[in-house]
Amino acid sequence: MNDVNRNNDPHPAACGLRYPPFGGRQNHEPSSSRPKTAGLVTAVIIPAFNEAESIGAVVAELPRAIVDRVIVVDGGSADATLQRARDAGAEVIEVGLGYGRACFTGAQAAMGADILVFMDGDGADDPAGIAALIAPIKNGTSDFVIASRARGEREPGSMAWHQLLAGRFAGALTGFLYGVHYSDMCAFRAIRRDTLLALGMREMTYGWNLEMQMRVARRHLRVREVPVSYRRRLGGQSKVAGSLSGSLKAAINILSAFARIALQGSRSG
């Protein structure tokens, strides 16, 4: 686990942190068997759209000893996503279309939470990585922690080459502008709720993840990347990488978001 490379970063990495290796899907101990850590409330927010094949297993697999709340934000699913999320024990919110809208709505709804973890509902993100994401925030050494699939172990067929390239390209651009060199735009990430709400997030579609990374970097917050394992989705088709049209739409949204946020920064600077 390393700090993201920032030019002249005034916040050196904390030493001595060690986390268990990430593995396959497994059942975690019930919350009654282990105490919550550090006294901070952690909420996991899962934006979902037609994830009935996977959402129940994703919610059930979360390590409830360190996760206090689970909020599934549904963007108008036409399948049984809502019911299966409820059956698995999640709080469920219904919103309109828009990945960023779902994430922001979940953040607003997570009142009382100190740390927000964002992850997808397709089963590709390994919940075992949540401990590594929230630990640097709990011990006060990082403000924003993002998972890196590029630096971690990827199950064959879990990630397309153009997804890896897009993450590297976006990281190079943020490095050029702000001195923060990300290796990925992974949705799996953790941030303090008050920090997120103070960022002034505006992107309500697939530009949300990049916008968060850019705004965090522009504010010179302490950023850390954590290598994670990445798995093939449990079912369905990716809205972004699953089709050419989906990939093109997401790419346009992300590039447009980058231009808008960069211009906002130059005007304010």
Explain what you see.
- The chain has one domain: Spore Coat Polysaccharide Biosynthesis Protein SpsA, Chain A, CATH 3.90.550.
- It is α/β, with parallel strands linked by helices and 269 residues long.
- The radius of gyration is 17 Å and the shape is globular.
- It has helices spanning 55-61, 81-87, 99-109, 130-138, 161-178, 193-197, 208-218, 244-268; strands at residues 2-3, 5-6, 42-48, 69-74, 91-94, 115-118, 144-148, 180-181, 189-192, 223-227.
Give structural attributes.
269 residues, alpha/beta, Spore Coat Polysaccharide Biosynthesis Protein SpsA, Chain A, 8-stranded mixed sheet, two-stranded antiparallel ribbon, 8 helices, 10 strands, 15% strand
Fold blueprint:
Layout: E1 2-3, E2 5-6, E3 42-48, H1 55-61, E4 69-74, H2 81-87, E5 91-94, H3 99-109, E6 115-118, H4 130-138, E7 144-148, H5 161-178, E8 180-181, E9 189-192, H6 193-197, H7 208-218, E10 223-227, H8 244-268
Helix pairs in contact: 5-7, 7-8
From the N-terminal CA to the C-terminal CA, the straight-line distance is 32 Å
CATH architecture level-2 label: Alpha-Beta Complex
CATH class: Alpha Beta
Could you tell me the CATH topology label. Spore Coat Polysaccharide Biosynthesis Protein SpsA, Chain A
Number of domains: 1
Largest sheet: 8 strands, mixed
Morphology: globular
Give me the count of strands: 10
